[in-house]
């Protein structure tokens, strides 16, 4: 064969026979896979996606301000002197916890959970007979597990806390925080109060628990957060312009 005829050969023709057979087999396989994918895409059954997490839309829908319904479902045997009002973000509830509520924390926890779950209650503040304040902020058709609420209320009552608050932060990663506060007359008392938190276990649905003990000059704090060891800090109480000095 002349040199001129060799130059006229294509790249494929110049390949050794084993290499040509390998490339040919790969091309056949890729073609079959491409056709199969196209058939499955066009003719396959529709797929249903099951949503396993709370989803949020932007912009968020207008909150439902069903004040009349909230008034109707509040149990007066558990929450006395209740008052409601509407805001831009839902319904606000205030009231006083009855002696019956204090004697049955599991039932109180179930009732508050039902209220938050079935109505858009943006803020609910309830005062116990000993003036401890129980509050829920940022809930709208969502709630905690009643057992989690019960655990923290009972801990706060047992240890003489001044307030216990649950805060909901709707976001891509749904977060609920709880905080418990005491007002103490000395650093020793504040330390002893926070030491009671050693036995407190964070419920799975509560992302973080923050415990604060305030003295006239000092803030003592313990933070229990998911996936982290308990963090203790103490520092002077910040005044306007000082910033956060706790360490």
How would you describe the overall organization of this protein?
The protein is of the alpha/beta class and 247 residues long. It has eight helices and nine strands. A nine-stranded mixed sheet has the order 1-2-3-4-5-6-7-8-9. The longest helix has 27 residues. The termini are far apart. The relative contact order is 0.08.
Distance between the termini: 88 Å
Helix percentage range? 25-40%
The mean pLDDT is 81
Q: What are the secondary-structure elements, in order, as H or E?
A: HHHHEEHHEEHEEHEEE
Strand content: 25-35%
Q: How would you classify the quaternary structure? A: single chain
**Poorly predicted segments:** 40-58
Radius of gyration: 31 Å
- Give the strand order, joined by hyphens, for the main sheet: 1-2-3-4-5-6-7-8-9
Number of helices: 8
Shape: elongated
Largest sheet: 9 strands, mixed
Short description:
The protein is of the alpha/beta class and 247 residues long. The chain is built from 8 helices and 9 strands. It has helices at residues 3-7, 11-14, 17-43, 67-73, 99-103, 105-118, 146-158, 187-195, and strands spanning 79-87, 90-97, 121-127, 133-137, 163-169, 175-183, 208-214, 218-225, 231-236.
């Amino acid at each position: 064969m002349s040199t001129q005829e060799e130059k006229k050969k294509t790249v494929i023709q110049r390949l050794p026979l084993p290499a040509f057979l390998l490339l040919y087999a790969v091309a056949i396989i890729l073609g079959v896979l491409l056709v199969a994918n196209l058939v499955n895409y066009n003719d396959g059954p529709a797929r249903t996606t099951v949503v396993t997490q709370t989803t949020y839309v932007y912009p968020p829908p207008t909150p439902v301000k069903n004040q009349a319904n909230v008034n109707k479902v509040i149990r007066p045997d558990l929450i006395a002197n209740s008052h409601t009002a509407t805001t831009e973000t839902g319904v606000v509830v205030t009231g006083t916890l009855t002696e019956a509520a204090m004697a049955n924390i599991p039932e109180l926890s179930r009732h508050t959970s039902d209220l938050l779950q079935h109505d858009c209650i943006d803020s609910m503040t309830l005062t116990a007979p000993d003036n401890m304040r129980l509050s829920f902020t940022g809930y709208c058709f969502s709630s905690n597990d009643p057992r989690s609420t019960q655990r923290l209320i009972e801990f706060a009552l047992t240890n003489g806390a001044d307030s216990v608050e649950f805060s909901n932060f709707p976001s891509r990663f749904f977060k609920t925080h709880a905080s418990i506060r005491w007002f103490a007359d000395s650093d020793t008392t504040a330390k002893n109060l926070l030491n009671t938190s050693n036995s407190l276990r964070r419920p799975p649905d509560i992302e973080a628990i923050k415990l604060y003990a305030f003295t006239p000059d000092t803030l003592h704090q313990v933070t229990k957060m998911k996936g982290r060891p308990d963090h203790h800090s103490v520092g002077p109480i910040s005044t306007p312009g000082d910033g956060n000095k706790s360490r």
